[in-house]
Amino acid sequence: MTLKELYEIIGGDYDQALRVLRVEKLMDKHIRKLTKGGVVEQLIAAGEAMDPAQMFDAAHASKGMCGNLGLKKLSDLASEIAEEVRPGNPRTMTDGQVREKLDEIAALYRRAVDGVRQYEQN
Amino acid sequence: MIHSKQIQRQKLVLVVDDQEINRDALGVILEDDYEIIYAEDGAQALAAIESNVDRLSVVLLDLMMPVMDGFEVLKRVNADEHLNHIPVIVLTAEKNAELKALQMGASDFITKPFDVPEVIIARVARIIELSEGRQLISAAEHDRLTMLYSRNFFFEYAHRLFHYTPGLRLDAVVMNIEQFHTINAVNGRDFGDDVIRVIGAEIRAFLSESHGIATRFEGDRFAFYCAPQDDYQALLDRIQGKVNGISPNVSVHLRMGVKPWQEGTDPTFLFDCARAACNMARGDYQNPLKIYDEDMRKRELLNQRLLNDLRSAVEERQLTVYYQPKYDIQCDPPRLSSAEALIRWNHPELGMISPCDFVPLFEGNGLISVVDSYVWQEAAQQIVRWRDKYGIKLPVSVNLSRADVFDPTLVDRLARIIEENGLDFKDMKLEITESAYTENAGELLETVRDLRQLGFEIEMDDFGSGYSSLNMLSGMPLDVLKMDMKFVRNIESSATDMRLVKLILDIARYLKLRVVAEGVETAGQLNLLKDADCDLVQGYYFSRPLPAEAFEALIEREMNVERG
For residue B341, which of B267, B379, B402, B485 is within the disulfide window of CB 3.0 to 4.6 Å? Predict the structure, then answer.
């Protein structure tokens, strides 16, 4: 499996990632890190505990990382969560709606991780 | 051709972001053009900035980070005068943060994600270019060692203060270091730089308490345009005190000239006057502060006139050589032994001018060599005239100034005078002032050795008036010590002074040097010196300096005594 094929499987924007990271070597390095745990997993964990401070930090970091990797949907969802729990912002969603968003993030993340594992096996 | 890239080191960029992917993304964009270092949080960033302060061209700073966020880094960098010249570009995806960062001193911002690398490269290059331009202007504006203004900026700002705030009263002050070139030569350039830095720091401290601006220029010259002070001596003492603390082994003396504010007088004139006052204090270690006043203005005008008139004085023979006899007092009666040639200036309009009024002036600018050459030539011809007229050889001493001693053609010039007049080298003795021996001693000793090798006798003039040491004396190529008149003045009334004179005589005997006592005015002084085995005396007791014709009476009297 090529990196480009991986991006097709996980629904990522290969060209966007390449624009940011310039070389496939860096794309390869950082996409593989998805399986090592990290900010998205921290966001999911913080969401289960409904801890707004930790959710904000993890969502902010996830937004940036996923954006750089061309995982636009994940990045946008993380951004929505970040704005929802940003200190000083008024809440616009119920906890239930936030959980739905987090479930969506978890599903996308799992899909990405599975794809990366297949990519690593190849 | 050498290109600027061969001279410049690669520019250093600090990338600060807690996300490795962001650090990598920026690194890969910038690595072709810059050397890059990284930090993962604000605390690491500050440490990296401090340890690379002289090399960092720009910092790319994420705002949201653990440990210390980017806003705190910005705040600390901008509050630190050693760091705040380094431009900071913030990395953010949030509009609100952009404005806040710019208000806190960020130079620019880069929006995440970093998907248009050309924009990032261009922004980084532009900010570095702007910052370097600003630093170049700052470097031209300030003196590197002292951080005081450079000369051109100082005078520009002084004139602006004068023109834009006419009610502001500011005095002009000029300060110099005595013999700074010697301090550098003896103690090394680094020591000299330390002295400059200490003075600069103290002036800045003074100006932080008072109003004013200051500059350093021409190496050791400081000038400040400051609110009038009640006590400039206290200001000079304050700066001198700091300088004294640099080294217990090196004496550094400052002098200061002040021109008080004067309504409607522009800074250029005020500083010309302050500089003249400072020049008047040259070498006056007892009174190193001079306030410019009307007397000084007259003195300055006189000095200028004397400088202008020197050439015609030589051409029209207004300069006259007088002769003061030296007597050998171990003979009975004392015998005329030799004479010292002394310059006098009979100015057609100003009348007789004391050498005290023009010798130090000409010594200060090197013109003394013109006067000295004139005296050497005149004295040589006079020795010949007396030889021919009386059939005697009466040696005459002439003075060598500092400027002569360090003139590489000196030995040849003197030798030519001896040769052209058909004299022996013993006929003309050379007096070198004690203070010249303490400056650039190596060069002087070489010259003196060459002169002695030719056959000249060397006399150390004004011995004891300055800072010569016994250690120095033992290594000098010398024949005669001329004991300064201050030792002789009180020997009749002060047992201590007499003991000191005896001590000098003992030392001279030990070193096999003859001694001339200067300033002998009474029979009592003469007898005491004779009893102490002093060889020769010079002073008003025997005769004041006389024109050559009048001096001949002394020669004739001496010849009558011999015949009688």
Answer: B379
Query: Which chain A residues are Cβ-neighbours of B21 within 8 angstroms?
Result: 21, 30, 33, 64-65, 68-69
Alpha-carbon distance of B440 to A77, in angstroms, equals 81
Taken in order of first residue, the domains within chain B and their CATH numbers are 4-141 (3.40.50.2300), 151-292 (3.30.70.270), 316-554 (3.20.20.450)
* C-alpha–C-alpha distance, residues A6 and A31, integer Å: 10
Q: What residue segments make up the domains of chain A, in order of their start?
A: 3-121
What φ, ψ does residue B378 adopt, rounded to 5°? -60, -45
Binary contact (B19, A65; C-beta < 8 A): yes
| Entry field: residues in chain B | 564
A75-106 b/e (C-beta count within 10 Å ≥ 16 → b): bebbbbbbbbbeeeeeeeeeeeebeebbeebb
Q: Which helix (H) or strand (E) holds B394?
A: none
Q: Is this model's pTM higher than 0.90 or not?
A: no
Taking the Cβ of residue B140 and every Cβ of chain A, the question of whether any pair is shorter than 8 Å is answered with: no
Q: Does the beta-carbon distance from A64 to B116 stay under 8 Å?
A: no
Residue B495: which residues within 8 A CB-CB, separation 6 or more? none
Q: Most B CBs within 10 Å: which of A21, A57, A71, as the mutation test of the B interface?
A: A21
Q: Of B136, B48, B125, whose CA–CA distance to B89 is shortest?
A: B125
- Strand, helix or coil for residue A13: coil
Task: Look up residue B104 and give its DSSP letter.
Answer: T
Residues of A in contact with B116 (CB under 8 A): 19
What is the CATH superfamily name and number for domain A3-121? HPT domain (1.20.120.160)
**What are the b/e assignments for A53-74, b being 16+ CB within 10 Å?**
ebbbbbbbbbbbbbbbbbbebb
Q: Is the dihedral of CA B444, B445, B449, B455 positive or negative?
A: positive
Rounded CA-CA distance B69/A60 in Å is 14
Q: What is the pLDDT of residues B359-399, one digit of tens each?
A: 888 887 788 999 999 999 999 999 999 999 999 989 999 99
Tokens of B293: 């006043």
